[in-house]
């Protein structure tokens, strides 16, 4: 009997995968489908909080949640292992320590840093990719401060923090650094003027998803707190000393170098023979790749076309969680022989933090926020993703209730 | 008029120097003597707590006190500068940024790590010398943990912590590590079995100041918590990889190497032409070097002979603070033309911590303590040194009130 129950395998417990698994437990009974969730770690982490982990402004443990606290291991089989390859033809997933077959697959393996082939970037720059890589950055930064007063011939640039990319992650990260660096200076008896926080961006503006008024607000907020913004300056190479920047090939030196300039889908997709467009898989409006019946690709692994704007939706946690709702509904539809539905994105707005007490945002169709109210809204947004995953209990446990 | 007031210059604001300055303000009026206290930093730190800073089990700021909170800047002129040289003949002290003349000098410049010329030790091993060097160790250890899950070919030994010397500092340090390492393993998702804490000692026993019963207790306590004790094993060389140990020249590898095996007086003394015996200055029972009238050398800079035992008193905070009492009294005697008094050490006992909830100690003429009561007593001892320096206010501010 049990062999006739369809098996849904969800790869990845990020916003997209974990929400899918959670929604599936509501949509389908144990008699209707077996659900398997595969994830490298036994925890989910808040990707949108990693810039805070990387800056050291929150405890890494606040940014992660045990998966078994979100979905019941009685209903969802939890497999903690790394995905090596997806074998579409055999409907099988190869894991590091085992293999798993599926009837339906949800690929939600998230992103990897994309250095667009910039020379030396992979070797010399840190990336904000997961909990491990993010707290390595904050530990690396703190180690530079700890060394500073202990060494005879310490380079003056060792305290500098150089961040490539002025998108969401890069700007939110330097916003946190503007808050963290004075704390580190105080802790390690170092003059604030010894530390440069430098953001380098090839594009003509920071935060391209916001309009000029909000961008100007953000720039002023960051520059007033000592962040140097080098806009319209391409990085031609990363070295052990820093970035080589701009037409005049200036070497900007720093003891900590971080690249936030781009993401691409998990390398498992390319290695499994998926066709990639700008690093991700194009999916139809039902969130399946063209011509594929039994597989959904969501979150940072895929591009979903925004027909109105004639470009893909930007990858966000909000998008991933809304996709998960539709995937769960569509899996139910497939299993119960109903028609699948189309994904339509409902934009709840976008808020970027600039440290813990400042920010900018667009919310409620065009209403703009900046300053403390945006910072407050950012915490509401962060808590909302917790609420969507784990209800009020999880918000109380991991939510952000800092005074502002 | 003011030129006729004798000028007392105290070098160093450790236990010895800061207590001397504090006592002088009680013993002598502003009309009787000018008091100058010279120290590198604007803070005093609890040297006996540095093993906790180095292990990362206390906040470095708990282990330091602003000097101006202990002695009034209205009564004591505070000079924050490094001592370069003492010119005895000209009664002058050369500082990095100025010079200062004295009528009476108290040399309390503390200790430096003494590697007894072991090859490579100065280059490759950390030392627990001051706040800066101690928190560098805890940051270095944490950085090894942060890197572990992020690197492809990370060496298995990178998490190991290798400590040379099983005296007070070395053993108290590994005791703290036995407590800290499981916390770090939990934080960084690393199996405890991946981390070795290894203490290497050339002498036939750890903690030579305690008797066999207490030493056996300490060894069992540490070994039960996973500390490896390699006793009777001399270190012939320190390399970037670890220590070369014992007759068979075994290389023990570790990502963190700390040397706690010996101390000597501040190098300023040797560079100023003081005669050194085993790294320190011998002083008479009035705490002045033989034949010197205007200078006292105390704390970790000097040896005071214990006539009963026919060997010098071991250097401890307790000894330093008792010396300071006598120096202050003798300075008053010199200024008021009274005879100086002899220093007699009154042993209040010795307590060593083995982490925050275990320890061993001798207190009240031969009464032995071990376990939680020794750990509790250790906190009493730590708080007592705060009390002697800054009264109840300082105990409340910086005291140790951990539950145990």
From TrEMBL, chains A, B:
Q: What is this protein called in UniProt?
A: NAD(P)/FAD-dependent oxidoreductase
Matching InterPro entries: FAD/NAD-bd_sf, FAD/NAD-binding_dom, NADH-Q_oxidoreductase
Question: What Pfam families does the record point to?
Answer: Pyr_redox_2
Q: Under the GO molecular function aspect, what terms does this record hold?
A: NAD(P)H dehydrogenase (quinone) activity
An example GO biological process term is:
aerobic electron transport chain
What the record says about family reads: Belongs to the NADH dehydrogenase family.
Specify the domain of life of the species encoding this protein: Bacteria
What keywords tag this UniProt record? FAD, Flavoprotein, Oxidoreductase
Respond yes or no to whether keyword Nucleotidyltransferase is given for this record. no
Q: Which cofactor does it need?
A: FAD
Answer yes or no on keyword Ribosomal protein. no
């Amino acid at each position: 009997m049990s062999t006739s129950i369809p098996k849904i395998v969800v790869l990845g417990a990020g916003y997209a995968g974990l929400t899918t698994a959670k929604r599936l437990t509501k949509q389908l009974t144990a008699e209707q489908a077996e659900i398997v969730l595969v994830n490298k770690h036994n925890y989910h982490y808040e990707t949108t909080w990693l810039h805070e982990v990387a800056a050291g402004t929150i405890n890494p443990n606040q940014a992660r949640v045990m998966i078994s606290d979100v979905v019941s291991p009685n209903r969802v089989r939890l497999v903690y292992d790394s995905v090596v390859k997806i074998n579409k033809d055999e409907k099988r997933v190869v894991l590091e320590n085992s293999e798993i077959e599926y009837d339906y697959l949800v690929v939600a393996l998230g992103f990897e840093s994309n250095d667009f082939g910039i020379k030396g970037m992979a070797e010399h720059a840190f990336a904000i990719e997961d909990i491990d890589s993010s707290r390595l950055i904050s530990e690396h930064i703190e180690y530079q401060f700890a060394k500073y007063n202990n060494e005879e011939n310490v380079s003056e640039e060792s305290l500098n923090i150089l961040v490539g990319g002025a998108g969401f992650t890069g700007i939110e990260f330097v916003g946190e650094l503007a808050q963290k660096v004075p704390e580190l200076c105080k802790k390690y008896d170092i003059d604030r003027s010894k530390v440069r926080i430098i953001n380098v961006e090839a594009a003509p503006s920071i935060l391209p998803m916001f309009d000029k008024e909000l961008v100007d607000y953000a720039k002023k907020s960051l520059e007033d707190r000592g962040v140097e913004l080098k806009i319209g300056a391409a990085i031609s190479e990363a070295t052990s000393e820093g970035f080589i920047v701009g037409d005049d090939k200036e070497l900007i030196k720093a003891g900590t170098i971080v690249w936030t300039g781009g993401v691409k889908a998990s390398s498992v997709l390319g290695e499994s023979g998926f066709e990639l467009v700008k690093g991700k898989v194009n999916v139809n409006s039902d969130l399946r790749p063209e011509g594929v019946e039994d597989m959904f690709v969501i979150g940072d692994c895929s591009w979903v076309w925004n027909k109105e704007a004639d470009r893909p939706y930007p990858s966000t946690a909000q998008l991933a969680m809304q996709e998960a709702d539709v995937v769960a509904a569509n899996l139910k539809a497939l299993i119960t022989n109903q028609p699948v539905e189309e994904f339509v994105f409902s934009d709840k707005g976008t808020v970027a933090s600039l440290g813990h007490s400042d920010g900018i945002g667009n919310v409620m169709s065009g209403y703009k926020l900046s300053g403390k109210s945006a910072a407050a809204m950012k915490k509401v947004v962060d808590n909302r993703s917790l609420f969507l995953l784990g209800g009020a209990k999880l918000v109380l446990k991991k939510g952000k209730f800092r005074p502002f």
